[in-house]
Amino acid sequence: GINAPFAGYRSPWEPPLLVQMRYVFNAASMIREGYAKWKDSLFQISRYDGDILIVPPRYLDDLHNKSQEELSAIYGLIRNFGGSYSGITLLGENDVGIRALQTKITPNLAKLCDDIRDEFQYCLDTDFPACRDWTSVSVHPLFLKAVERIIHRIFVGLPLCRNPQWVQATSKHAHYATMI
């Protein structure tokens, strides 16, 4: 990995999960904090789905000289999933997914916030265990399910996004499509 400091930690003993959850609500302030401390250096921010490396402007010329394949998150994903052995190389063959996100989802994020919040609350109410005392919970599967529910809500809406047959069919499809 990259040897760069992390922004957003309140103490050296703070669990990464707390920082990652704080990122969801305070990403901008975490980036500002990192920029204030390490303006001309690399720094990282911890997210639940992976760390983000913040690169200062002085490295832009170096980045301009890199190929799209070297800088592309899609090509990185393809490499991480086994390249041609995984069957996902077609993601790198066109940019239809990226264009859909850029032209349809991103411009409408403000309109989607209420649906996202509503679906996450539904997920908390239905999928997370009700607890009166301290209870150990495996959060990874719960967060995956929450993300899955929110994506269904964005792409197909109510009531289909909560239909058990739909959820099972799409979940199984994603599972089997990524198996090698």
Written overview of the protein:
Keywords: Heme, Iron, Metal-binding, Monooxygenase, Oxidoreductase. Pathway: Secondary metabolite biosynthesis. Its main location: membrane. By secondary structure, this protein is mostly helical. The protein folds into three domains: 6-65, no CATH class; 71-104, no CATH class; 107-179, no CATH class. 55% of the residues lie in helices and 4% in strands. Strand 2 and strand 3 form a beta hairpin. It is globular. The chain starts with 5 loop residues before the first strand and ends with a helix. The model has no long low-confidence stretch (mean pLDDT 83).
Features:
three-stranded mixed β-sheet; heme; 180 residues; 3 domains; monooxygenase; globular; mainly alpha; metal ion binding; metal-binding
Topology:
Elements: E1 6-7, H1 16-37, E2 43-45, E3 52-54, H2 60-64, H3 68-71, H4 73-80, H5 96-105, H6 109-126, H7 139-156, H8 164-177
Parallel strand pairs: 1-2
Antiparallel strand pairs: 2-3
Pathway: Secondary metabolite biosynthesis
Cofactor: heme
GO molecular function: metal ion binding; monooxygenase activity
Proportion in helices: 55-70%
Query: Proportion of β residues?
Result: under 5%
Mind telling me the C-alpha Rg? 19 Å
How many DSSP helices?
8
What's the β-strand tally? 3
Low-confidence stretches: none
The structural class is mainly alpha
Helix and strand element order: EHEEHHHHHHH
Major sheet description: 3 strands, mixed
- N-to-C CA distance: 26 Å
* Order of adjacent strands in the largest pleated sheet: 1-2-3
What spatial form do the alpha-carbon principal axes imply? Answer: globular
